[in-house]
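Contributing: when you submit paired examples, paste them exactly as shown. First protein:
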Amino acid sequence: MKYGIVIERTRTGYSAWSPDLEGCVAAARSQPAVIRAMAKAIALHLEGLRSEGLRRPVPRVSVAWVEVPRA
């Protein structure tokens, strides 16, 4: 199962979060590192849900890029 993540540039590197998994976040110095950290965070998040007897959320987010003309 795949979950979408949002990656944002920060003053010190990158942060990421998943719109489908409330409270699941990660931060790192590089974009590849934040993606790896987010994969681990998602796995831990889902494990926590499972241990509490909760269902895994169904991914609902999709991402598309929209190109707009330069001003």
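Second protein:
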Amino acid sequence: MIHIIGISAVALIFGLFLRQHNKTVSLILIIFACIAVFLESVSYLTDIIDTLSGMVSGLEETSAYLKIMFKVLGIALITQIISDLCRDCGESALAGQTEVAAKIFIVALILPLLQAVVKIITGLAS
């Protein structure tokens, strides 16, 4: 976590300083810092994935749902980073459309999970 805070703090300070002189270089610095923070935080996901995979190793159906959940998490995280960068560049409309597109994609991705929940609910009701 210290690495992430350090990367963010240094990039913020340099980014604010460079923004006064050259906005393009400042933006490139912030993009690289975002990538570095993302890659640093993704390394923690491997531990989580290994633990969850061990928990559901014998349950085939559950592992498929777990894959869907991780895809949704990845889409949400990447979309947040991209939309924040779009807003930093002053492109709030593009940021909003990126978020809407991600939400539509997430809904399409979770449809099998939603169908399984509906089957469970209708099975309990009868």
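If you have annotations for the second protein, write them as plain sentences, like these:
The mean pLDDT is 83.
The radius of gyration is 19 Å.
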